[in-house]
Design brief:
Order of helices and strands: HEHHEEHHHHHHH
Strand order of the largest sheet: 1-3-2
Distance between the termini: 37 Å
Number of helices: 10
Number of strands: 3
Shape: globular
Largest sheet: 3 strands, antiparallel
Length: 203
């Protein structure tokens, strides 16, 4: 019940139903989701572990907002785990799985939604079959589907950025892990430079 409830709340966060910084009142959530307080509290704890919400000193839960500094930290972390995921794909021979995923990239022209654009990154981690890397999927979705699209400068560069992931996906499918690693690194280097250029980074 807790995992199911956490999944529902997380999807509402990704879709913008609950906005950054919004307080999640447990009494209202319990009524809306038709769950008792205990599984709801367990669900919120799961979401805190995934980095989607935070609790204040009074135990109130709010949707986590992303400062420029935190966004940069998240991108540095993602650059490490996603470039590392390429090596695991090579060992696990997961190119067949990503070949099927590659076919779905064509739909991005007609559906360039944040959810669709994040799929490369989430599939990359899922296909490693590594439970530790898979735990990064909620954070990947949050950064790609919520925090980045909320940046006023992002829309101008999103197509250019996505091209890096298209090339990386093609490289993985064709077994060229070094090329995939390079394109993924370029993606994050470009993102980090854009954050640096367009936002004042504070501690």
């Amino acid at each position: 019940m807790a995992a199911e409830t956490a999944g529902l709340i997380s999807e509402r966060i990704f879709s913008g139903w609950y906005e950054q910084g919004e307080q999640l009142r447990q009494a209202s959530l319990s009524e809306q989701l038709e769950v008792s307080r205990t599984p709801l509290r367990d669900a919120l704890n799961l979401l805190e572990n995934d980095g989607l919400i935070k609790f204040d000193e009074s135990g109130r839960a709010t949707v986590k907002a992303m400062t420029s500094r935190a966004l940069k930290d998240a991108m540095h972390y993602r650059r490490m785990i996603e470039t590392g995921a390429c090596d695991l794909l090579q060992r696990n021979d997961a190119a067949v799985q990503l070949a099927d995923f590659q076919k779905s990239l064509a739909s991005l022209a007609s559906d360039p939604s944040p959810r669709n654009r994040s799929r490369f990154h989430t599939e990359l981690l899922e296909c490693t079959r590594n439970d530790h890397l898979r735990r990064g999927v909620p954070m990947v979705r949050l950064t790609e589907e919520v925090w980045l699209p909320a940046r006023p400068w992002y829309r101008e560069f999103e197509n250019q950025l996505f091209r890096f992931t298209e090339v990386a996906s093609e490289a993985i499918v064709h077994g060229s892990v070094p090329d995939a690693r390079r394109e993924i690194k370029n993606y994050f280097d470009q993102l980090l430079q854009l954050i640096e250029n367009n936002e004042r980074t504070t501690l």
